[in-house]
């Protein structure tokens, strides 16, 4: 996809400084600081009510922060700065569409609303339709489109004005695997020269796609790193022993001073070793356990993503 | 960095008009039928009500017929005007489409202006067509009518409707749903009708701008009084629209339902 026009050199970035947002007496955001300063795919995860949508709405100026500020491309977000609205493209989770318009009219009107004149509009709409891969008839009335078709139309709609920053709130949710994979590929493609900041409940997509992941819980940013580093941090030196006698194994492991944390997950006992030489230490522990108990398996613990997410969120709540 | 505001405003107008024009034909047909019925009912009334002697009914002069039409039109079209405005902002908020507008480079003042113009056209076109239809019916039934006075009343009706559209837009701006917007609008229109009925006597009659389209057929107004009435209508309308802009610009959570 070609950029809309010859672009001047500019700094692409999102900076959020001590962002707080209060609804009545409830703080939805309790002081968020984050910086994204280069193109890429950035995932935002968090449980329901963590503040993801509030954060996105504050970044796009749809909500006025109670405290703190948001800077987009070196300019502080201000609803009165009209040019700033062409810096980003935002697809909220629950956005509505003008259901009585045709898909073509919808795109032309959105392009016009972002300042593209008639000549630019025609060319640009066709370019974006091709890029996004909209296959259905442009005369189709929007309210008759499927969920996936509507999502593609919205993505096309926010790309028309060629924004530097794309914000997708739960945009992969509710899509069938084929459309989801298509949208994921589009996001990956777009992230080559744009910041794509998105949230999703589908953790496999977040871990697989994102260059960096932000974890939000209870209005606070609790983690920020590459997906691999986050997994490493959480599962560092964690081993498991699978046994039918997992309760007695659990009690036995409690006696080891080198073990930092123990927990039971199904018939597995998970334990984290605090020693620097964790591999040797784990072997030694295993040897001692085998002497006294029968075990089914042993290994380095690799949690599934849902468990990892629960761990991150619950460790923060502790 | 510079935004082509003409394109933005034209696209917003186009979007509003494309959505509104679907309603234009049914509204026009409905208003024409209602308007013609108000006149035909006047002729049919003596034969429908048998208990009252026919001589007690007024003679159906073109003025009486015109007054009947404008009086009914004033009451009914004012409600239609505010009801057509409930979706202006509250409807967008309810359908979650306000986000598309609030993330586009549109000035709040233009947003309110364009929404007002489209809704005014939606009520003004059917009203004007129906008033012409009624004029021709009166000509047909009574054979004569004062066109200049009738036209003046029609123009005043449009001015009054513009004021009611402004009322509707303001209510739609601060309400969160179409239902609450509609309920408040109807309540306000009834209150305004009541107030204008109370003002329709004595000295205040000359400046009772909410009933001006009816009164202009019954009383002679000086040019100054006509200008004052127009200024009052426009002044109040602009004030209401200005308030709408202030409300929508100062909202901290504009898209929140």
UniProtKB/TrEMBL annotation, chain A:
Keywords, alphabetical:
ATP-binding, Nucleotide-binding, Transport
Presence of the UniProt keyword Lyase in the record: no
Where the record annotates domain ABC transporter, the positions are 14-243
Keyword Lipid metabolism carried by entry: no
Alphabetically, the GO molecular function entries are: ATP binding; ATP hydrolysis activity
Q: Which domain of life is it from?
A: Archaea
The UniProt family comment states: Belongs to the ABC transporter superfamily.
Which PANTHER family does the protein's record reference?
A: ABC TRANSPORTER ATP-BINDING PROTEIN, ABC TRANSPORTER ATP-BINDING PROTEIN NATA
Q: What is this protein called?
A: ABC transporter ATP-binding protein
Give the species. Candidatus Heimdallarchaeum aukensis
List the taxonomic lineage.
Archaea, Promethearchaeati, Candidatus Heimdallarchaeota, Candidatus Heimdallarchaeia (ex Rinke et al. 2021) (nom. nud.), Candidatus Heimdallarchaeales
Automatic annotation (TrEMBL), chain B:
Record's GO cellular component terms: plasma membrane
**Coiled coil, from the record:** none
Q: Which GO terms describe its molecular function?
A: ABC-type transporter activity
Transmembrane regions listed in the UniProt entry: 24-49, 69-90, 117-138, 150-172, 179-199, 226-248
What's the superkingdom here? Answer: Archaea
| Keywords recorded for this protein, A-Z | Membrane, Transmembrane, Transmembrane helix
The protein in question is named ABC transporter permease
């Amino acid at each position: 996809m070609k950029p809309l026009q010859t672009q001047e050199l500019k700094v692409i970035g999102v900076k959020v400084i001590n962002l707080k947002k209060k609804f009545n007496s409830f703080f939805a955001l309790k002081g968020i600081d984050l910086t994204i300063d280069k193109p890429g795919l950035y995932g935002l995860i968090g449980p329901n009510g963590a503040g993801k949508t509030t954060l996105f709405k504050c970044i796009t100026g749809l909500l006025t922060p109670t405290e703190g500020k948001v800077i987009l491309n070196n300019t502080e977000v201000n609803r009165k700065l009209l040019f700033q609205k062409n810096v980003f493209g935002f697809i909220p989770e629950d956005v509505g569409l003008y259901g009585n318009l045709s898909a073509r009219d919808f795109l032309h009107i959105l392009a016009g609303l972002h300042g593209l004149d008639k000549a630019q509009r025609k060319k640009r709409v066709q370019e974006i339709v091709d890029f996004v891969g909209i296959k259905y008839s442009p005369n189709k009335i929007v309210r008759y489109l499927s969920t996936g078709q509507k999502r593609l139309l919205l993505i096309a709609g926010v790309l028309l004005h060629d924004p530097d920053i794309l914000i997708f709130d739960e945009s992969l949710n509710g899509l069938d695997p084929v459309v989801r994979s298509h949208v994921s590929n589009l996001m990956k493609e777009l992230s080559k020269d744009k910041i794509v900041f998105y949230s999703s409940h589908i953790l496999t997509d977040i871990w697989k796609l994102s260059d960096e992941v932000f974890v939000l819980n209870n209005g606070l940013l609790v983690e920020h790193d590459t997906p691999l580093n986050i997994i490493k941090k959480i599962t560092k030196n964690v081993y498991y022993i699978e046994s039918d006698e997992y309760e007695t194994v659990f009690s036995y492991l409690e006696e080891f001073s080198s073990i930092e944390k123990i927990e039971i997950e199904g018939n597995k006992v998970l334990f984290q070793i605090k020693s620097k030489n964790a591999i040797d230490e784990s072997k030694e522990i295993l040897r001692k356990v085998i002497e006294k108990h029968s075990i089914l398996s042993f290994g380095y613990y690799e949690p599934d993503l849902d468990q990892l997410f629960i761990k991150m969120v619950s460790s923060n709540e502790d | 960095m510079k935004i082509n505001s003409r394109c933005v405003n034209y696209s917003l107008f186009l979007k509003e008009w494309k959505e509104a024009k679907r309603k234009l034909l049914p509204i026009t047909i409905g208003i024409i039928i209602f308007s013609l019925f108000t006149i035909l009912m006047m002729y049919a009334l003596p034969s429908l009500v048998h208990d009252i002697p026919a001589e007690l009914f007024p003679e159906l002069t073109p003025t009486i017929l015109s007054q009947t039409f404008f009086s009914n039109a004033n009451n009914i079209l004012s409600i239609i005007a505010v009801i057509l405005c409930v979706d202006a902002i509250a409807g967008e908020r309810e359908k979650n489409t306000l986000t598309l507008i609030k993330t586009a480079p549109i000035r709040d003042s233009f947003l309110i202006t364009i929404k007002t113009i489209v809704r005014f056209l939606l009520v003004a076109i059917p009203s004007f067509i129906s008033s012409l239809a009624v004029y021709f019916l009166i000509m047909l039934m009574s054979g004569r009518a004062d066109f200049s006075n009738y036209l003046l009343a029609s123009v005043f009706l449009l001015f009054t409707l513009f004021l009611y559209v402004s009322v509707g837009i303001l209510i739609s701006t601060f309400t969160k749903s179409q239902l609450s917007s509609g309920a408040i609008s109807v309540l306000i229109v009834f209150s305004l009708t009541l107030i204008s009925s109370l003002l329709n006597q004595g000295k205040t009659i000359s400046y009772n701008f909410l009933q001006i389209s009816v009164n202009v057929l019954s009383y002679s107004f000086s040019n100054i009084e006509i200008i004052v009435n127009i200024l009052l209508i426009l002044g109040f309308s602009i004030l209401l629209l200005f308030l709408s802009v202030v409300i929508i610009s100062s909202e901290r959570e504009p898209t929140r339902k």
